[in-house]
Amino acid sequence: MFQHTAAIGTDIGISRLNIAVVNYGGKTLKFKTYPLERKQTKDYLVSKLVESIGDIRQIVALKGINPICIGISAKGFVDHTAGIIFGPDLGIKGWTNVPLARLISKETGLPVYVGNDANMMTIAEHRFGVARNFNNIVFVGLRSTGIGGGIIINGRLYRGVNNAGGEIGQMIINFADGISDKGIKGSFEHFASASSLVRRYYKEKNVTIRKNQKTLTGKEIFELSYENDPAAVKVVRENAEIVGIGLANLITIFAPEIIVLGGGMAEARDSYIQMIRKSALANSLENCRSEVKIERALLGPNASLLGSACYSMIRLAGKTI
């Protein structure tokens, strides 16, 4: 590998495709966002990927840059070896059992490698971010749509059976209550995600949320807490404690060197991260927590782009992670 070797990293979002050309050292050489239509199908999404990848290749070619491979970051379960999206379909017609790597490679002429988005973020933070130089890592993505995760053990990404490992958001922390949209009772995601923060805020305000009602976002509730809105302060503190309890479980099971907190909620003020640390350390075994660090992710929303580009270059070189 040469330091100037470049790859294309692609992140499939709900309303847009984010695409970047990244060199082997993790430097973004070009970034561009491509909007997506509200209603999508498999064929539309594949064609949009091909079109967008072709566009950014033309742009960087003017600078003498010729990417050698493509990494794609996608939500859901992924067969990373074959590059197949298993699902769920996420409301996209036909978006199950999609041989995405083969389809995109056929159209672009480049090797293509596909991975789960949380795993790609984990790889990025391990290679270029706050978890650099650590070998035992847990990444927790605290997002508006749920909680994702990735686990690195002894320097290798843990995937589990059927590439299904790392679904941190679905561990159960309160069996007495809370059926999630995935049908799991008492999940970490149900009680600690941004949507839970919103639900708790309106309950605290004694306001019933009607179907299809526009509500405050998690970010707006954090902002209210900074202004000392009593209900917002209370539910943010509760949320931090619950997040910390989830992390305590991970600490006691894995005894990691570092837990990396990513996603939109992790961009809140330091006081929120400090409350999470306090709860996590208070609820875990001393020997397991003795050396753990709990840190905010360094790379922000572009981590999946860096991770997918890096991952594709590692795979192209015949290595695994």
Work out the strand percent: 15-25%
Query: Largest beta sheet: what is the strand line-up?
Result: 3-2-1-4-7
- From the 3D structure, determine the CATH topology of the largest domain: Nucleotidyltransferase, domain 5
Main sheet summary: 5 strands, mixed
**CATH classification class of the largest domain:** Alpha Beta
Mean pLDDT across all residues, rounded? Answer: 92
What is the correct CATH architecture of the largest domain?
Answer: 2-Layer Sandwich
Elements, N to C (H/E): EEEHEEEHEHEEEHHHHEHHEH
The helix fraction, in percent, is 25-40%
Number of domains: 2
CATH superfamily of the largest domain: ATPase, nucleotide binding domain
- Total number of helices: 10
Q: How would you characterize the overall build of this protein?
A:
- This protein is α/β, with parallel strands linked by helices and 321 residues long.
- The chain has 2 domains: 6-120 and 302-316, Nucleotidyltransferase, domain 5, CATH 3.30.420; 133-297, ATPase, nucleotide binding domain (Nucleotidyltransferase, domain 5), CATH 3.30.420.
- Helix content is 38%, strand content 21%.
- The chain has 10 helices and 12 strands.
- The protein has helices at residues 42-61, 100-108, 117-128, 188-192, 194-204, 218-226, 230-254, 270-282, 286-289, 303-316, and strands spanning 6-12, 16-23, 28-35, 70-74, 77-79, 84-87, 112-116, 137-143, 146-153, 156-157, 258-262, 293-296.
- The chain has a 5-stranded mixed beta sheet with strand order 3-2-1-4-7, with helices on both faces. It has a 5-stranded mixed beta sheet with strand order 10-9-8-11-12, with helices on both faces. A two-stranded antiparallel ribbon has the order 5-6.
- A hairpin with a 2-residue loop joins strand 9 and strand 10.
- The longest helix is centred in the last third of the chain and has 25 residues, at 230-254.
- The model has no long low-confidence stretch (mean pLDDT 92).
